[in-house]
Amino acid sequence: MSTSRGPHRRSYWLTWTLCVIISAACECAAPDSLKLVWLSNTSLTCNDGSAAGYYIRRGSNDQHWVVYLEGGGYCWDAASCNARWRRRPGLMSSSRWPRTRRAPALLSADPQANPLWHASNHVLLPYCSSDMWTGTRTLRRSNNSFAFAGRLIVRSVLDELLQFGFAGRLLLVGSSAGGTGVMFHADSARRSLRTHGIRVAAIADSGWFLDRPQKTRRASSTDNMARLGHSLWLGSPPTSCVREYPKKPWLCYFGYRLYPHIRTPLFVFQYLFDSAQLTAEGVRAPRTRAQWDVVHETGSAIRESLKNVRSTFAPACIAHGALARPEWLAINVSGVSLPRAISCWERRFSRSNRKERARCAPRKLVERCTWPQCNGSCPRLRDPRTGEEVALAALLQSFGLDVRGAAAAMGLDARALSRMSRAELLPLLAPHT
After folding, report:
1. 345-356, pLDDT tens digit by residue?
2. 417: phi then psi, degrees, rounded to nearest 5
3. Where are the beta strands (DSSP E) in 206-340?
4. How far is CA 255 from CA 177, 252, 325, 328, 433, in A?
5. Which residue in 80, 176, 337, 418 is the catalytic one?
6. Which of 4, 298, 393, 414 makes a 20 to 30 Å CA pair with 280?
7. What tens digit of pLDDT does each residue of 166-183 get?
8. Is 320 a known active-site residue?
9. Where is the signal peptide, in residue numbers (predicted)?
């Protein structure tokens, strides 16, 4: 080894050693990473009894906090929980949590990736309770069972954040099961934090599930799964909703039933053809006309369930979850992007002036088109069996569109139409669907 490289090597090891010694304050971590903090209340754990915690990064805007509840499905009885433990143990344990985590899109400090909240204080709650953040079962009954303390974990994290000088505004956000959790926690968070002068608003991303009957013999009823889960988790839905459904409190796990009882400002993002909802109904990879009929029925049902939601953004896509993904910037409805819609929604309940609010987008942005993937900003649809992108023409044909007839109406050859790209095809088909 040449002597000229020795000083550089010694300098590197010195820097590395200093980072290890003062890791709490060192900036050697990736610039877009969040730091792990374990909950001080050690009685609140993940499913397997391992410690619960959260990731945090302080931003330059001390008056705005974004707290994000991760999603990741749930389990509802011994069989489903044991299967989840075998297949996805990372969603039930903190034993392999890294000391730092790269921020998802909505918690990024990069203004290009996160134009709305890059300067905010960011908090990420990793999901390890498998209960849609609603459980209060803290003790494992035996070595073969699990704890479900999601609701208590959220409360404890919010309490701890007050020790960080928590002030100003809190935006509680969640995706999938985290989106359901947000709807559960929005009002309780608002009530507990307003005594500290903190204003709360919430965004539910893809947590708006329906209790529709299963469409195949292999699918389990979402209503039945919620019933079993509510009992297993010792779930604690908002009291006002339980009063409406005293004999079936698990119905409060479904967004359209819970929404009328939420008083906190809430923005609902929901794909009209939510892939998690379709999977729950037994239609994971639709191929036949009958399966596509189910897809259309689900889309119509989701559209109908959103009609009384004051602030909603609903593209006609087959997808699930948006805000944690980079493509959230590109999603739009009627030419209004998702970031712009959320920005306008935030202005309405903030102290912005009337002129700013007047320039804003409509509160309700629900796709007018009624067929799946008709929105050009939809995430690409891929066949779960092969991983390959599904061609739009083939997709349309599989759920009953007469491609030959559509081609003739547009003065095109059917083979030419089938070879068109998504960007070419959508503008042509829009007037004919």
Report:
1. 999 877 655 666
2. -65, -40
3. 266-269, 312-314, 332-333, 336-337
4. 11, 7, 22, 22, 30
5. 176
6. 393
7. 889 999 999 999 999 999
8. yes
9. 1-28
